[in-house]
Amino acid sequence: MSLYPELDNLDLTQLINCFHKTFPNGESDNFAYFGEVALRIRQQGKAGIDFLFEELDLANLDRLRGIILALTFPPPVEHPSLRDILLSYLHDRRPSIVADAVDGMRFLGATDTADAVLPLSTHPDPYVRGSVLRFVSHLFPLSAPPILLKALQDPHYIVRENAIDELDDLGAIEAINYIRPFLSDPHPDVVQAAQTAISNLEELASDKLTLSSNS
């Protein structure tokens, strides 16, 4: 169910008007709202996609984030400039744009951008560092576990949580004992991630043991 049912059944012109207006509750910026509008604009076909590309240099922070989401959300838009546009945003002064660009590269499956993305693993913003972990985990799953295990020691809970989630998604059974200490992490989100990951990975390990015994 949509968070914004008032957007249902609007045509392209009406959606563009919504995109240019301030957020309905009076706030000037709201990523969730503009992301939803941008996604619906993309669904209008070529005219909608052309509009989103035209707005890239005009949009404020949350509108730009919405556009990046709409253009890269799986399956991403097929456009010859999209990869280069995302690469340019890796140098943006706004951390949320950098993180969104890295996530966009992940959605594009742009493994050839690793040399540009991986240095951001030391970016001062934790959301950017977390986006790099997702990039590595999804595009380089075989080489990702050591990077994710190292990230467990990150001082920010967002990065620790991301590292645990990605180890879980990779089915990294060997990481169970590394994750277990985070059941006592000072941040509840990390504790929850650790509980879920350990449960999933232990079940996976049990299933593999059963299959091995039966073979």
Structure overview:
By secondary structure, the chain is mostly helical. The chain folds into 2 domains: 77 residues, no CATH class; 75 residues, Leucine-rich Repeat Variant, CATH 1.25.10. The chain is built from 12 helices and no strands. The radius of gyration is 20 Å and the shape is elongated. The N and C termini lie far apart (45 Å).
Explain briefly what this protein structure is.
The chain folds into two domains: 1-77, no CATH class; 141-215, Leucine-rich Repeat Variant (Alpha Horseshoe).
Offer a few descriptive terms.
2 domains, single chain, mainly alpha
Overall geometry: elongated
Please count the beta strands (DSSP E, at least 2 residues each): 0
Oligomer classification: single chain
Rg over alpha carbons: 20 Å
| Number of helical segments with 4 or more residues | 12
Mean pLDDT rating = 94
N-to-C CA distance: 45 Å
Largest sheet: none
Count the domains: 2
Spell the H/E element sequence. Answer: HHHHHHHHHHHH
Structural class: mainly alpha
Helicity level: 55-70%
Strand content: under 5%
Poorly predicted tracts of residues: none
